[in-house]
Amino acid sequence: MTSASAPAGRVLLADDDRAIRESLERALMLEGYEVLTAEDGVQALTAAHAEPVDLLVLDVMMPGVDGLGVTRVLRAEGDRRPILMLTARVETSDRVAGLDAGADDYLPKPFELDELMARIRALLRRAAPASADDGERPEPVLQVGDLRLDPAARRVWRAGREVELSKTEFDLLELLARNAGIVLDHPTIYDRIWGYDFGPDSKNLAVYISYLRRKLDAPDAPPLIQTVRGVGYTLRPQEG
Hints:
Blueprint: E1 9-14, H1 18-30, E2 33-38, H2 41-50, E3 55-59, H3 67-76, E4 83-87, H4 92-101, E5 105-108, H5 113-127, E6 142-144, E7 147-150, E8 155-158, E9 161-163, H6 167-178, E10 184-185, H7 186-193, H8 204-216, E11 225-228, E12 232-235
Parallel strand pairs: 1-2, 1-3, 3-4, 4-5
Antiparallel strand pairs: 6-7, 7-8, 8-9, 10-12, 11-12
């Protein structure tokens, strides 16, 4: 037994703005994280290849290789460590570009420090390996219409076609699949997926839903995820 408590996790933080980088480094360290920093995408890739880190926080706009480029390289190499994007871009299409590159979450600037910490904790919780007992049976595959979701393997198929999802996308789809036919309101989804309610003005959930639809719904297939306006979302196959 050691006298010092174990660190909350090891984070690689990459941002070319020195003031932001140093202030976030201090804040993360105060929360108990071990922090590695990088000034640009090249340094971030070098550190990611050389250091055992639990999570990456990447600014999108960096000289040389930007945050999107770093994410694409790591995902192409099969690196599945969670990535949180920081972006000053406010357009939904720009934020979706981060998810398309393989990021697990994004946070638009300026942001509240509490929200950043909440998202980091949520990503680390979902990335932590499950503690399985020897006698525990694997979870059954979920089937909703022509959607098949394997919680143990974290794989998804729609109409026989496998769909690649990020950690956050998979967790959101799994939550909806486990509650198929039930309308889940925004606060419930935020609490279950992010562990934090970002409030009525947040576009975070809407972006993830739209991105899941883009990945899941073929042009000739009926949509799986239904919007119940003013309430939330439900997974409910429509008969074509």
